[in-house]
Amino acid sequence: MSVQRLVILYLLVIVSALALVYTRVATRHNYLDLQAHQQERDRLNVEWGRLLLQEARYAEPRYIEKRAREQLGMRVPVRDEMMVVRLQ
Amino acid sequence: MTRRLTRKTASKTRSKQPLTSPVRHWLTLGVIGSLFILMAGRALFLQVFNADFLLERGNAQALRTIEAPAVRGMILDRNGQPLAVSTPVEAVCADPSKLYAAPESWKPLAKALGMKYATLKKRIKKNKDRHFVYLRRQVLPEKAEQVMALDTDGVFLQREYKRYYPMGSVTGHLVGFTNVDEKGLEGIEFAFDDYLRGHPGKDQVVRDASGHIIEHVSNLKRATDGQDLVMTIDSRIQYLAYRELKRTVQKNKAKSASAIVVDVTNGEILAMVNEPVFNPNDRSQLRSSRFRNRSVTDNFEPGSTVKPLTIAAALQNNYVNPDTVIETDTGRMKLARYTIKDTHDYGDLSVSHVIMKSSNVGAARIALQMDADDLWSLLNGVGFGRLPQSGLPGEAHGSLAHHSGWRKVKQATIGYGYGLSVTALQLAQAYATLANDGVSVPLTIIKRDSDVSGKRVISAKVARQVRGMLELAVSDKGTARQARIPMYRVAGKTGTARKTEGKGYSTKRYTALFAGLAPVTRPRLAMVVVVNEPSEGKYYGGQVAAPVFANVMTSAMRLLNVAPDDVPAGALWVAANKTGADK
Question: Does A44 map to a domain?
C-alpha cells in the first residue's frame, strides 16, 4: 500500500472520529431540547386540564342556575307569560 | 539527600561531562517505552477483546427502561361537556434505602408532603431495605414542585393521572369511577375500560449517577393515549332530572328512586339518575349500596304502567277497539282464589276509560280475552324479560315467564302489571316504542355513528290509539293530572304498585311510578319515574312521580327546541315571515 493511500485513510479515520464526537454532542443537545419541549408540553397539558375543569365548573347547570336566580333575579316564566311566535 | 545534591552541583562546576550516563538514558527510555506499550496493550484489550462484556456492564449501570405515560380518554356528554377528565398529577416516590441514611431530611419532607412525621418515619423504616416506595400519590403538580425543591436525595417524581368528574354526583351512577391506577371499576368507566385506557410505552434511556436522564437511546414501545368516549347524555337534562328527583325523594322520604329520559326517535338516553347518589370525586363516599345504577339493575313490578301495553296487544290482535265496553262489575272480580279489586266501582268502562281510570278489573278482563301468546309477544317485543343492551354494565333482564306456563290467574295479573318484573330502563324502552309509533329502537348510552333501524312491534295505528288513551289519563278526569305541562300535550300512565312482602303484597310499601311521553302530536321524549317506598303519606304515582315528569319535561322541551303543540289562542302570535315582509 502506498504511503499516499495510508495518509488518506488516516485522514478519513480522523474525520469520522471527529464527526462521531460532533454527532454525540449534537444528540445530547437535541435531547435536552426535546426534554425541555416535553416539559413545556406537560405544563401546557396540566394547564389545559385545569382550564377544562374550570370551564366545566362554570358550565355546570347547577352553577348557572344559582347565578341566574340569585345574582340576576331570573326565574322560569309561568304559563300566562309565555308567547309562541309562529313564522308564516 | 542534601549531601548528594551538593556533590552534584560541585561536579557540574568541575566538568562539561553529560549529566547522565548512556546506560541511565536507555534505561529510562526503556521503562517509559514499556509502560506505553503496556498501556496500549491494555487499551487494545479493553477496546477490542473485552469490549462487549464491558459495554454490557456499563449499560447495566446507566441504561434504564422507563415507562412513557399515556393518558386515559375523556368521557363527554352529547354536547362535548366533559364528564370525566384525566389531569396530570405526580406521585412522590422514594428510594427508602437512601432516605433512611438521612433522617434529618424527614421533617421538612413530611411538611412539604402534608404528611404526619410519624407516618413518614414509619414508612421509611418499614421499607428501608427496598429501593422503591410511594410516599404520596395523586399530588398536585405545584405541590410536587415544592417537594422537589427540597432536593432530598432519593426522592423523585413519577407522572400519573387523576380522574376528575366535573358533574360529580349528577352523573355518578352513569359514568362510574376508576381506582387510583385509573382502571375503571364502575359504570361507563368499567364497561368501556379498554376503549378509554391509554397504553403506556417503553423508552430506553441513559441515566447519570443522580438519576437524571441524559440520553434517550431508543423507543421500545410507543405510548398510545386512550380514546375519548361520547355519551348520549345531555348534561342539562341530566341535571334537571337529578334536581327534581332529589326534591321528590326528600319531600316524600322515599327509600330510593330512578328517572330516565329517552329520545324516542333514535333510542338515545338523554338522562338517567338515581337516588341515593354518591360523589365519585370523594372516595370516602364509595359504598356499593350507593353506586348501584338502580335504573338498570333493580327490578320491580310495574303495576298499572303495563295496562297500555295489554290494551295495545288487544287492539293489535283485534280483540277490542277503543270504544268496546268492558264491564268492571262492582270493582271486584273473582278469579280462582283471588279477588282483583279497583279503588272505585266504575261500572261499565270503554277500553279508553280503562286506561284513564286505571281499572285493574278492566285490564284483567281484556287480558283474559286474548290468547296468552298475543299478550306475551307484545310484552316481549317491547323488551320485557330481555336485556336492553344499552352499553351500561350490570343490566338486569327482569322476569317475564314464557306464556306456555301461564295459568288464567297469571295472565290476568300480568294484564295489570303484577307477576312480572322490569327495570326502569325496560319500561322506558316500552314507552319509547309507543311514542315512536310502535317501532322499537334499541336504547343506547353511547353516541352511535349512525342511526340504527328499529323493529316494528306495534302497528302505527294502535300506537296512536294508545297514546290518545294515555292523554286521557293526564286529563282532569284521569289519574295523572300533575303530569301536565304548559304549551305541550303530554300523555302518560301512573302506577302505584304494592311491593311484595313475604308471601303476599304489602299494604304499606309501594312503588310510585309514572311513564309518559311528550309532545303527543309528534313524540320526541319518553320518561319514566320510579319512586321506591315514599313514606310521607302520599304514595300514588300521580302524586309522587308525575310531578317529576312535568318539571323535567317543561324544561327539556325548551332545551331541545321542540315546537309546542298546545298553544292557547291568546298566547299565539303569528308573525309574518321576515323575507315575506320585505317584499
Answer: yes
CATH numbers and ranges of domains, chain B: 66-200+219-230 (3.90.1310.10), 235-559 (3.40.710.10)
Domain for residue A81, yes or no? no
Q: CB neighbours of B438 closer than 8 A, spacing ≥ 6? A: B456, B457, B458, B459, B460, B462, B463
Flag whether residue B166 sits within 8 Å of chain A, measured between CB atoms: yes
Is A61 domain-assigned?
yes
| A88 close to B (CB below 8 A) | yes
| pLDDT score of B476 more than 90 | no
pLDDT band at B479 (very low <50, low <70, confident <90, very high): confident
For residue B285, what pLDDT band results from cuts at 50, 70 and 90? low
User: What integer pLDDT is reported at residue B537 of this predicted model?
Assistant: 81
Encode pLDDT of A17-74 as tens digits: 999 999 989 988 888 898 899 889 888 887 888 888 888 888 888 888 899 999 999 9
Instruction: Check CB contact under 8 Å for B216 and A61.
Output: no
DSSP symbol at B300: B
- Interchain contact, B564 vs A84, CB within 8 Å: yes
Indicate the Cα dihedral angle B546, B552, B555, B561, nearest 10°. -100
Assess if residue A79 is contained within a domain.
no
Residue of A nearest to B484 (CA): A79
Q: B440 with B378: CB under 8 angstroms?
A: no
Query: Would you call A62 and B239 a contact, using CB atoms and an 8 Å cutoff?
Result: yes
Residue in B164, B243, B578 nearest the CB of A53: B164
Interface of A with B in 5-34 (CB under 8 A): 27-28, 31, 34
Q: Phi and psi of B455, rounded to 5°? A: -125, 130
Q: Quote the number of domains for chain A.
A: 1
